[in-house]
Each structure stands twice: as structure tokens, then as C-alpha cells.
Amino acid sequence: MAFGRVSGVGALAMLFCSGCASQADAAGYPLLDEDCREYATLGADTVALPDHMTLNVFQDESYVWLCASLPPESYGAADIVIDAPGLDAPRNLHISAQLGEWPAEGEGGGPETAESDQWWRVSGWSAIPFRFNGYQGEGDERRAKFIPSEARELQLSKAHFGRGVWNLRLEFNLVRLPNGDLGTVTFPEETAVSFDVEVK
């Protein structure tokens, strides 16, 4: 997938690795728990996202953590397109009520139904799906109920995705926007542009 580069992000991407060798040694590691508050004490780098969201990026010798804060009353289903040195082609990493992964371009997209056996076939990364909280409705109207999330957090393996520049596009759905609606937040906002993170 041919992406452009976010203006000014080249220097920021370099910043992400400026202290990666010592970040974890000095402060410990993030817990994969959808809580981004610990990242400040860990010395993680932060990037402002649209609609008052923030992305935290932390890495050690083996893993990269991404934690995006969400506005209150958001669910934050995520589609993260990643093009990295360890991949033959860009992949779409999906987080909602289930986890999934599929090619980011061409045929062979995501599962068509909730029952598809394509779900949960992920490799080299992990995240927490939506927080299930019982059911609502009766009979044919019965539906799963979920608790809103404070953040969307991933842990990714450098051994799987490779070291070097990772090109990312982030899309978060079911986000409570400033006008009160549930909508979509993308970063970068320009569709042909990627967000680059240098991974050592």
C-alpha cells in the first residue's frame, strides 16, 4: 500500500526510538488493560489525535505498545492498517467484540458474519476486545451488551512485524464525538497518508 508521510512526523517518529533501549528498564512495562494513564510515568511518547484523543507509543527491545485514549461513552472499535518490514503486504488489525486480521488491500477482506471462522486468526499482536456485559432485549431483539471503553490498547511483536519503519493508519469507530454523536476518528485524517513509527 503506497502511503505518503505526515508532514513533520518524520522527526516525531525518530523521537519514538530515542529512548527505547532504556524506557522499560527504568520504569517497567505497560499492562494490557485499556488504561493509558500509566504511559506518562513510563516515559512513553504521545501524539495528539483528532477529537481530543491521544495516542501513546512505548517500546522495549521486543514489543511495541499503542494506547489510544477515548472520549467518555465511547466503544472505540479499531481498524489499524500496518505496513512493516516483517510483512509481505499491509495487514488490517481489527478490534471490536472480536479480534481479527486480514489483508488491508485487494480481496480476502474481513469476516462477513460474527460466526465466521476468520475471527481470532491473529498473529504477533494482542488486544482486549469489547467488554461484554450480558444481554439486553428479548426474543429476536436480544442483543449482547457492552460497557464503553476508556482506551484502545495493543501490544505488537517486533519479531513478527520486523524492525524499521512501521507505516500505520488508525481508524476508531463508535467514538463519542464533541457533538454527542457516535462516529469515526481517523489518523492521519488524509486517506493517502500514513503515520510512521521507527522501531528498533
Topology:
Layout: E1 4-5, H1 9-16, H2 20-27, H3 38-41, E2 45-48, E3 54-59, E4 63-74, E5 77-83, E6 91-95, E7 99-103, E8 125-127, E9 131-136, E10 143-147, E11 149-157, H4 158-161, E12 164-176, E13 182-187, E14 193-199
Parallel strand pairs: 1-14
Antiparallel strand pairs: 2-3, 3-4, 4-11, 5-6, 5-12, 6-7, 8-11, 9-10, 12-13, 12-14
The coarse overall form would be globular
Provide the succession of SSEs. EHHHEEEEEEEEEEHEEE
Strand count: 14
User: Into how many domains do the coordinates divide?
Assistant: 1
Helix content: 10-25%
Largest sheet: 7 strands, mixed
Q: Which stretches of 5+ consecutive residues score pLDDT under 50?
A: 1-19
The fraction of residues assigned to DSSP E strands is over 45%
Taking all Cα atoms into account, the compactness measure Rg is 17 Å
- State the helix count: 4
The chain-level mean pLDDT equals 86
- Gap from first CA to last CA: 22 Å
Structural class: mainly beta
Descriptive report:
The protein is mainly β. The chain has one domain (about 5-200). The protein contains 4 helices and 14 strands. It has helices at about 10-15, 20-25, 40, 160, and strands at about 5, 45-50, 55-60, 65-75, 75-85, 90-95, 100-105, 125, 130-135, 145, 150-155, 165-175, 180-185, 195-200. The strands form 3 sheets. Strands 1, 5, 6, 7, 12, 13 and 14 form a 7-stranded mixed sheet that branches. Residues about 1-20 have low confidence and may be disordered.
